[in-house]
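Section: protein folds

Sequence with per-residue tokens
===
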Amino acid sequence: MTPKIKICCIANIEEAQLAIKTGASAIGLVGNMPSGPGIITDELIHTIAKNIPPHIDTFFTYKRNRSQKYHEPSQKNKYQYYSVG
């Protein structure tokens, strides 16, 4: 069995490409969170996600309140949402 590896807190397209090139099977994109590194804008998250090959899973972590809408998943990538706080 081949292990699957997710690299989290990707900050730009170049980091995503490097993670994939070095063997990542998934990448993590961190949106609006009260703590921790990796906070990037929704626009950048969508830009990175649409440049990810279909065989790479994409995870999106962010703090969501009830008034915010969920982001629409892209056609080729999966999003996993966490609602914290």
Notes: The chain has a mean pLDDT of 78.
